Amino acid sequence: MADRFDVSGQRVLVVGAARSGIAAARLLHSRGARVTLTDVKSDVPAAEALRGEGVTLELGGHDERRFAHAELIVTSPGVPNDRPELACARKAGVPVIGEIELASRWLRGRLIAITGTKGKSTTTTLVGRMLEAAGRHVLVGGNIGVPLSAQVTESRDDTVHVVEVSSFQLEDTDTFHPWIAALLNLSPDHLDRHASESSYVEAKARIFLNQNEQDWAVVNAESAAALRLVERTRAAVVQYSVEETAHSAVFAARGAIWHRSSEGDVPLAPLSAVGVAGRHTLSNILAASAISRIAGASAEAVTRTLGAFTGLEHVMEPAGAIGDVRFVNDSKATNVDAAARSIESFDHVVAIIGGRYKGGRLEDLQGPLATHGTAVIAFGEARERVRNALEGTVPVEDADTLGEAVRRAWTLAQPSGVVLLAPACASFDMFIDYADRGRRFKEEVRRLAQTPPGEP
């Protein structure tokens, strides 16, 4: 595919001028395409630089005629698949593909793709580090860090591309073909973007679409929904689980992470090397261990990586303490299932929940809160929905700002509880993204710690 796919001289329209769209526009231009980058925003990063490089920009709205007369359209992940301009293009016979599909057509080496409702970034990061520790030439990107289109020029025959892929990226794939495809879990998410839960599931299922008997599918044995999807693949299936099961090839037991093979159980790493909290984090570690083992990492490389891993920013991140009250930043818990797993990782939790609702049953947090929680602070656009779903399980208080939420949560968590930012919602009502929300949370904790006693 890397040699056959040619866009030289073609009129190519790139829709969406965020990181992935900009990377795609530059890649296409370098391959000889006549590129136009369009966005509804009137101001985008690197606009002048792109024009200087020869990319045409159309900002402040989309010209439907441009869509119908393009020879190829490439969409950024943030662009909804059902936009009317895209429907017009498809009706005119114009192929529409996503940025990750575009980049994959020019990659060399091997491709490892990781998806799931939660845990993608942690698993992807760990796989990259384990394979680097094993001496491989690794490039990590996709939905995390560097867009895949920005990695094509560095791609070589001995490269292992470790790619986090979201449902938004997968829904516009066609020939995308991972050597190893991993599905970590599956629960309702992004229902503000996907038309239904089934369309979200079908998007995730595309990660296995083009695999064959020479490929590998890694799946969480504890996720019934994920197991159902992997039944479609022709690849060899490898299951992992926190609890040892008859079908799990990688699992945790007897103080270690084990790999079950035809030669018996082989220890990959002692559990004492794991320095991050949460059962769901251990599940991600097992997934990364399974993937890396298939890709050739030694037990020594796995152990060395885990010993140095302290977690990702905004994922179960310790954010300080005031007195005996601990603060934890899990701003990346943007769906209900992720927030539930986060709450279950601690006791005496005061959870800060809210933001822009994007689907899922907030009522599913009642069980974790009843066992592990003492109160909820509801904030953001979804706070009334949060209150209605959770009031009666634990006390629920409202906050107008994140700073107010942190102060109220600290008061309720005393003398020795945990204040946990686990929003179960998107961040776009009040913040740029989940990272902005997480940084603001940590700033509010620092501000509170520096407030003299007795001051509000």
Describe this structure in words.
With 456 residues, this protein is α/β, with parallel strands linked by helices. It has 3 domains: 11-94, Rossmann fold; 101-308, UDP-N-acetylmuramoyl-L-alanine:D-glutamate ligase (3-Layer(aba) Sandwich); 317-449, Alpha-Beta Complex (Protein-Tyrosine Phosphatase, Chain A). The protein is built from 16 helices and 20 strands. It has helices at residues 19-30, 47-53, 64-68, 84-91, 99-104, 120-133, 167-170, 197-205, 224-230, 279-294, 299-308, 336-343, 366-372, 383-390, 402-413, 434-449; strands at 11-15, 34-39, 56-59, 72-75, 96-98, 110-115, 137-142, 159-164, 180-183, 216-220, 236-241, 248-253, 256-261, 264-270, 317-322, 325-329, 349-354, 373-379, 396-398, 418-421. The strands form 3 sheets. Strands 7-8-6-9-10-11-12-13-14 form a 9-stranded mixed sheet, sandwiched between helices. A 6-stranded mixed sheet has the order 15-16-20-17-18-19, sandwiched between helices. The protein has a 5-stranded parallel sheet with strand order 3-2-1-4-5. β10, α9 and β11 form a beta-alpha-beta unit. α6 packs across α10 (279-294), α6 (120-133) crosses α11 (299-308) and α15 (402-413) packs across α16 (434-449). The protein is globular, with a radius of gyration of 23 Å.
State the distance separating the first and last CA atoms: 63 Å
Main sheet characteristics: 9 strands, mixed
CATH topology of the largest domain: UDP-N-acetylmuramoyl-L-alanine:D-glutamate ligase
CATH superfamily of the largest domain: Mur-like, catalytic domain
Topology:
Layout: E1 11-15, H1 19-30, E2 34-39, H2 47-53, E3 56-59, H3 64-68, E4 72-75, H4 84-91, E5 96-98, H5 99-104, E6 110-115, H6 120-133, E7 137-142, E8 159-164, H7 167-170, E9 180-183, H8 197-205, E10 216-220, H9 224-230, E11 236-241, E12 248-253, E13 256-261, E14 264-270, H10 279-294, H11 299-308, E15 317-322, E16 325-329, H12 336-343, E17 349-354, H13 366-372, E18 373-379, H14 383-390, E19 396-398, H15 402-413, E20 418-421, H16 434-449
Parallel strand pairs: 1-2, 1-4, 2-3, 4-5, 6-8, 6-9, 7-8, 9-10, 10-11, 11-12, 16-20, 17-18, 17-20, 18-19
Antiparallel strand pairs: 12-13, 13-14, 15-16
Helix pairs in contact: 6-10, 6-11, 15-16
